[in-house]
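chain below, 90 aa
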Amino acid sequence: MRKNKSAIKRTVQAEKRRLRNSHVKSTMKTHIKKALSAINAKDSANVEAATKTAIAYLDKASSKGVIHRNQAARRISRLAKKAHRALAAT
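prediction:
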C-alpha cells in the first residue's frame, strides 16, 4: 500500500478514472453493436437512429479522452459508410 499522502491520492484518482472510462467505453461499444445489428438486419427505420446515437457516444468518449480522437473519427467514418450502404440498398 502507498505510504505518502500524494501517492494515496493518485491511486484514488486513478481508480475513479478507471471506473468512469470503463463505463463510457462499455456504453459506447453497446451502442455501436446496436447500430451494426440494425444495419445487418436491414432495418432501415432503426438504422439512422441507432447510427446517430452510436456516433454521439463515440464523440463523447473522444471528448472525455477515453479513446483517441483519430480512433473515434475512424470508427465514425466506418459506421457511417456501412449505414449509408445499408440505407442505399433498401
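The chain has one domain: 5-89. Residues 5-89 form a domain with the Methane Monooxygenase Hydroxylase; Chain G, domain 1 fold (CATH 1.20.58.110).
thats it, cya
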